[in-house]
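Render this sequence as a predicted structure.
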Amino acid sequence: MEAGTIFRTATPWNLKHLSTLHRSSPTLRLIINIKASSSSDSHVRYKGPKSRRDWVADWVSNNDDTVRSLPIYIGGAALLAVLCNRAVSGIAPVADASSSQSRADLLTLGLAVTNILAGLVWLTIRPKSISPVNPLGVECRRISSGLSETAISELLWVWKSVSTATCCRSLVVVYDCCVVLQIGVATESSNGGEALVVDAAKLIQQLLCRGVMKTGAQSYLANLSLYPGRSELPFLPPNTQAVILQPLGKKGILIIGGDTIRGFTSSDQAWVTFLGEKLDATLENFTIQSTVQNRV
């Protein structure tokens, strides 16, 4: 009872006191206004643009065969309608150029046949579905023995990152005419059970890699089967779908093989460019340190 009495008696005094301070203090007035506006804004619903679902696009994608054959149905129905109208209306079956009805029927027949032909084309020509393939070959993991632990860990980090985030299934790093790393799926050699060894000296002299290293720009072969330079990369699985050739400065090249046609996005290509610059700095630093130690 006492607590309730104190609360009831204290509340009017506090409200009166606050109202007095509100009139006398501009700062307190500003704080109260901000709190009031924030409390009122919290109850206001979001009035921005809302995402809308395209029901027509969803229905078309879910009924692809029906949509493709729809022009055939429309054209056939129009053709039957013209023939029935011609038979019921009592017009002579022979087309008369002087008759407006004959000219309209001929135009309708042309449109109906056009619809039927369009439907046949839609059913015949379909976009090819692109799906990943299983690389044909053997697993390979070859690392140059002359590398430091730091360089090896960075190379393995690059492989793990690229193979996890992209469609990469094969990776080869050649630097200073030496195969620094060959990992992933590789072509099986004639000996059987072993991966085909990369001939670094021959690879650097090939037209494809030499052009990439000379220009210093990345080369992306989105559909490897369409390029004659496929024969210059015999160590990659025979069914490799896409390849990225990333130069490592003027001394090396990074070769990435993917399992999907056009599987590497523009973001992947930009990321590989930064990875190439990082690998170039690491391998160049290791080469300089090795040269200094040999001189000492």
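Summary. The CA atoms of residues 12 and 18 lie 10 Å apart. The chain has nine helices and six strands.
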